[in-house]
Design brief:
With 261 residues, the protein is α/β, with parallel strands linked by helices. The chain has 13 helices and ten strands. The strands form two sheets. An eight-stranded mixed β-sheet has the order 3-4-2-5-1-6-7-8, sandwiched between helices. The protein is globular and about 55 Å long.
């Protein structure tokens, strides 16, 4: 079995990266795709999103060479988590010391894993681990807020992706996912229009701003469980412009299409 590999990444934090990774992974599992989500961030928020104890599963799998089946945790059917934590810094150092093709270490380790989809929640910084995430991926999703400061993180992430492609690694797809989309403000609409003008069809339908997301996180519930009919999930139709703004259901449908192909 060859899994489809997805990296959720941005070189700036606070853009909804972990929420996107967790929501997508959970949705794929509910759709009966056997899914592994790997936390590449020292903060270890993936485990917290499922009300699990933070761990260092990634460290034990990479540095200690422990069997994956001994260290994963499974919060729901068809979904496994390889946790991250403070010792992820040791994982970065371990990979940096590899003398040959260190940038494809994760790609090689993924080759025989028994999953339909592998999702990586990448840390919000440039490192050899992030490069590994990109070289291993079939798809990269870049969540971003619609602000001037957040555009820098987006630009730097795309720059890194470009360098990875120049190094000979074929990245099939990447998509820019605008998060915290506030339809009531002209600034948000203007920023989104500018994003589309610059990146075209690489910009996917945005995720509406929704207080249900924070409440779901407080209860350690996925959006599919807590508020499946909320704007963040199902999006909304703008009656003035007749524009359709997507939510995580739209993102899930898009990714399922890629997995099937």
């Amino acid at each position: 079995m060859t899994a489809k590999v997805i990296a959720v990444a941005n070189q700036k934090g606070g853009v909804g990266k972990t929420t996107t990774a967790v929501t997508l992974a959970s949705g794929l599992a509910f759709s009966k795709y056997k899914t592994l989500i790997i936390d590449l961030d020292v903060q270890g928020h993936v485990a917290k999103a499922f009300n699990l104890t933070k761990g260092n599963g990634l460290y034990h799998w990479v540095v200690k060479s422990e069997p994956l089946e001994n260290i994963i945790v499974s919060p729901q059917p068809d979904l496994d988590i390889l946790t991250g934590g403070k010792e992820t810094l040791d994982v970065v150092q371990f990979i940096e010391k590899i003398s040959f093709q260190r940038e494809r270490y994760l790609r090689d380790k993924f080759a025989e894993l028994p999953y339909d989809v592998i999702i990586m929640d990448a840390a919000p910084n440039f490192s050899m681990l992030q490069i590994n995430a990109f070289t291993a991926s079939d798809i990269v999703i870049i969540p971003t807020k619609l602000s001037t400061f957040d555009s820098d993180g987006l630009s730097e992430t795309i720059k890194t992706l470009t360098e990875v492609a120049k190094a000979g690694y074929s990245l099939q797809r990447f998509g820019i996912l605008a998060t915290f989309f506030d339809r009531t403000t002209q600034e948000t609409r203007t920023q989104f229009t500018q994003l589309v003008e610059k990146y075209g069809d690489k910009v996917w339908p945005p995720i509406p701003q929704d207080t249900n997301v924070r409440v779901a996180q407080a209860y350690a519930k996925t959006l599919w469980e807590f508020c499946p009919k909320s704007p963040a999930v199902i999006g909304f139709q703008d009656t003035e412009s007749n524009a359709r703004y997507g939510g995580y259901a739209d993102l899930l449908k898009r990714i399922v299409g890629y997995v099937r192909n």
